[in-house]
Amino acid sequence: RVLDVGCGIGGPTRELKCKEIIGFDAWDYAEIYPHKFQLRDILNLQDVPDKSFNVVIAIDLIEHLRKEDGLKLLLEAERIAKKYVFFFTPIIWSENRDAVENPRWWSYGNSYNYHKSLWTEQEFIDRGYQIIPYPKYVFAVKEIK
To answer: Maximum Cα–Cα distance for the chain, whole Å?
Structure first.
């Protein structure tokens, strides 16, 4: 079981072959998300049981949160995951205005898509994550024991 937090339209998970993938997002992508979808506040995951998903992924999500909310999400992802947590986030700052304000983008009108924080490799390393080299992004993975 995989939990795709902040799933958007599910681009990175389209090709995953898993028993079950569930996407959570605060913006309604139910019509186009390729797996099971739940519209919900991703900062209120207390009702998701401990270790209820083998893997929790947050791809291009944490930068859309304030630092304190991002830290909260890290803790929740680690609580929910049985085996692994993956975070993927850009290492170069931008407000991401075009993605929200340009009608050509899939995320047009979604104010959740503004960037609010920048994350470094060291911030993930300090929390026990390993870094997978990837150009222009932090790709962090933590094995849950």
So the answer is: 44
